[in-house]
Amino acid sequence: MSYTLLIIALPALMFLILGLLGNKMKPVVAGVLGTLSLAVITVVAYITGYEYFFGGVGKAGGEAFQSIIPLNFEWLRFTEHLHIDLGIMLDPISVLMLVVITTVSLMVHIYSLGYMKGEKGFQRYYAFLSLFSFSMLGLVVATNIFQMYIFWELVGVSSYSLISFYYTKPSAVAASKKAFIVTRFADLFFLIGILIVSFYSETFDFATLTNPDAPFVGTALGASFMGISALSWALMFIFIGGAGKSAMMPFHIWLPDAMEGPTPASALIHAATMVVAGVFLVARLFPIYFFGTPEVLTIIGYIGAITAAYAAMVACAQTDIKRVLAFSTISQIAYMITAMGVSGYGGHDGLGYMASLFHLFTHAFFKALLFLGAGAIIHAVHSNEMKDMGGLKKYMPIARWTFLIACLAIAGIFPFSGFFSKDEIMVAAFHHDKVIFTILYIVAGLTAFYMFRLYYRIFHYENDKHYHHAPHDAGATMSIPLIILAIFSIFSGFVPFSELITADRLPFEAHIDIPIASASIAVALVGIGIATVMYRKKTNMADKFIAMFPWLYKGAANRFYFDEMWLFVTRKIIFNCISRPIAWFDRHIVDAFMDSLAHVTNAASDKIKGLQSGHIQQYALVYLVGALLFVAAFALCVVCFICK
Amino acid sequence: MNILSLFVLVPVLMLLAFIPCRNIKQVRTVGVIGAVIELAMAVVLLFMFFAAREADPISEMLFVYDAVWFESMNIHYSIGVDGISVLMILLTAVIIVTGTFASWNIDPLPRDFFMWLTLLSVGVYGFFISVDMFTMFFFYEIALIPMYLLIGLWGTGKKEYSAMKLTLMLMGGSAFLFVGILGIYYYSGLNSFNMLEVAANGAIPIEMQRWIFPLTFLGFGVLGALFPFHTWSPDGHASAPTAVSMLHAGVLMKLGGYGCFRIAMRLMPEAADELGWIFLILTGISVVYGAFGAIAQTDLKYINAYSSVSHCGLVLFAILMWNQTAMTGAVMQMLSHGLMTALFFALIGMIYGRTHTRDIRELGGLMKIMPFLAVCYVLAGLASLGLPGLSGFVAEMTIFVGSFEHTDMFHRVFTIIACSSIVITAVYILKVVGKILYGPVVNDHHLELTDAVWYERVATVGLILCVAGMGMFPGWISSLISSSIHF
């Protein structure tokens, strides 16, 4: 399987070529080169997937899927035991991710040929896409947690570069800064978590770190800090790292702003691949979470559920179509995170784990499709705002139908892909925790509502809206990816996931739970129904509804003021109350003290410099006074001596 | 002749060669040829060191040479190198070459400028090859004095004040240091300045160590920007001309860490163990305080100076952890910080040379105007905030992992505090990048400015290659350093 090296090496090479020589080539050449290289690695990834799952490679050692390490070398040695290796590890989840990432990335590459045509910095855009593909692929095949951290940082910087692609636009610059700093803050915890874990395990290797029987688990559970075991601290911190990338509350604030980047890049990075890194991280370390610190897993489940509810509420009140999609992404990733939190281990108990990754898989396609569709619409009407759209169904049939398919998939309508994955999550939540199930159930209805609100506002609503330039479907480079992704969105639910990707890597029998499935379809249909009534035609029902709950609407439209809270902490507290005073203290206290040493010396020497005046009379006087003082002192001593 | 002595001899010959130079072209020629010879020698030395190490895996120092210099005090011109000094010499050579290119159009008095700069390099090279503490101190002072004139004459802003402050504070440090060295000389029971001898056979009583250790650590610590003795750094770096900032932040500040390791920690480990916590707190403060201080600055050079306080604080922090990994990380951080801060100062110098301002509020949109310099600046920034693949990451991670290996909880908690600097660094780096490179052009006159010319490109590309090379292939550097550290 050593050919998998190509999957990593080719995008890296392409990044260097496009990054260094990009401005020497024609834009089209750069775009085609990037796309071709991605097509090659997509093929390689599919071959790898086939060989691994169905070609007998993965099951070479028996019933369970094995981890195969075709390549691993030492990169940097820290201590006798600790060293960072770079390598490739193939196991069910990494192979799954390879397939997902290459597929979506290829679609985005093709789509961007049309979407980004004529943009300044076209070559740079493709260079960053290659950098991103390289880092993301390197992240999922990591053989050890430090390699993962390395690529984790690299995806962060590629995301930063793509968000700030339109670097002359202040809002894009601010968004990129925010995204990087918020995720960096979370990554700090990831790093601390790694340090704590490796302190006890003396290795970074996933082989040991995912083995719940390894001796370090016992010692790390035994050691406690502030009443909580070291392992819990570590795994909680590592999860915070994942929560940062996956935009879980309260780190979600960067993702909506990240939509300032080019839309296809948002589709790739901020919808389908990078933002699910947190889910991947929990999945990667799942055995240790489950057997070592089940309480952390419970927290994860609740964080996911709360985030899902929050994001869905906010999504209902947004008017920028990319922001609706961004909040829907947060909400859907929260589903995956929750599913991890409610999962057991082994057999049907491990349903949550399987469902989480299943949802990751299906979501990648329909969410990428939604974003690319939104891109096509924005391209046509030159606006992100819902008020500039409406009635587009007659102008853009391809965009309309593919968008509708994606909406049905995300709403969880049978037989679209989202139905299957979401249903499994619901079942897992139902058997594990009724509170979480209830939240997810309501969110499913909200999801259907806001997605169809979006759909109707774009394609129906004001059916007779007048456009200056009649919008039309984009060219083949943009439409073909939409159609391909639509096909994936319809059929990817039929993949027999429970036979391929499970917590203990043994296949189990999963079936659709009819009562729960029909209940969730019912709530989705209710959501769609309400959206249809309110938004299919232009009515004042929505306004009436808003007038009923003005505070709720206002809160949701302002994202419940989370951004303001963060701004308050960073601007007011950290900048004004820490950073500025430190700068002042440094200049006016520390430095002034050093300066005052000089001033005192200066002043003292100024005072005594009169002694060197050159006036003989003065010298004689001083001499005389000194001599007299000596004599007096001597006489005093003599007197004292005699008296004694 | 011993190859190490050549490192001192070549700059001395350069000084002679400068004398007859009549115009800036001749000065440049001599400067570039000399610096390139030094660089070539440093590379040759590296390979010779590998070969010699293969042949002799036992001795601590290689290429040793010893000549009595001043008999009655038992002072020797005693030289030798281990892996750490070889890397430091290489760093110095790289920065002097790039610094020469960066001060291509120095004005006025180019000849005198280069002569002082070369004299400074004599001191630095001499410092890194010395084994005898007195000789080391001698070279250390040689390196300090030219700084005064270089800043006072060729600087900008309130240059006289800054030059005076920098020199006096560093001189104050070296006064502590000298007392410390004398203490070692007398109380080790050997009457010897040779640090290898003292390390092997010396027995400094613990009561004496208790005051010698703080003296030497502080003495070198001042140069390593130890809180609260770092205040020379912002003013000094801000006023200094480009090449001097590069050399000072890139190399001279490393003398501090190097000396702390070689003399303070190495010769007095017991006192280090006992009193280390005080300095650990101070360095911990340096790391976080410097980074927070940088956020509030508006002058590019001040930002970079405070960032240096933070990064150099990390060097001393790691040295105090006193284990092999952290120490390896400390040396890597010296290299990494040396390269990237030199890159920063070079770029700031180039931007300042065009826009005549370093105030971030008056700059904006430079990416559009001078894309080459702007991309280099972004790369330097990414290196500084520890992006994997560039030098900062490997150095910082080695330090963090090494420090966290410490068995004591206090040290581990402090490591976590120091780790937080990676976030604060990201804040001030991205703030600057976002403000001056991205966004709209603030000043329309800037639109007429040009991008980097060839000699500027040589300087920046050279440094970037080193930063990226170290970040991508850190293995050999790390093993070269750790094999030179013995406990």
In short:
Chain A has 644 residues and is mainly alpha-helical. Chain A has helices at 5-21, 27-53, 92-115, 122-140, 145-163, 170-201, 206-209, 215-222, 230-245, 254-257, 263-272, 277-284, 286-292, 294-316, 321-341, 351-381, 397-411, 417-432, 434-459, 476-491, 514-535, 541-548, 550-557, 562-608, 616-643; strands spanning 68-77, 83-90, 224-225, 228-229.
Please specify the SSE layout and strand pairing.
The complex is a heterodimer of chains A (644) and B (487).
Chain A: H1 5-21, H2 27-53, E1 68-77, E2 83-90, H3 92-115, H4 122-140, H5 145-163, H6 170-201, H7 206-209, H8 215-222, E3 224-225, E4 228-229, H9 230-245, H10 254-257, H11 263-272, H12 277-284, H13 286-292, H14 294-316, H15 321-341, H16 351-381, H17 397-411, H18 417-432, H19 434-459, H20 476-491, H21 514-535, H22 541-548, H23 550-557, H24 562-608, H25 616-643
Antiparallel strand pairs in A: 1-2, 3-4
Helix pairs in contact in A: 1-2, 1-4, 2-3, 2-4, 3-4, 3-11, 3-16, 3-20, 4-5, 5-6, 6-9, 9-12, 11-16, 12-15, 14-15, 14-19, 15-16, 15-18, 15-19, 16-17, 16-18, 16-20, 17-19, 17-20, 18-19, 18-21, 19-21
Chain B: H1 3-18, H2 24-55, E1 62-70, E2 75-81, H3 83-102, H4 110-129, H5 133-154, H6 159-187, H7 195-201, H8 206-223, H9 232-239, H10 242-267, H11 269-295, H12 300-321, H13 324-355, H14 366-369, H15 371-384, H16 391-404, H17 409-419, H18 421-437, H19 454-472, H20 475-482
Antiparallel strand pairs in B: 1-2
Keywords:
heterodimer, A: 644 residues, mainly alpha, two-stranded antiparallel ribbon, 25 helices, 3% strand, B: 487 residues, two-stranded antiparallel sheet, 20 helices, 2 strands
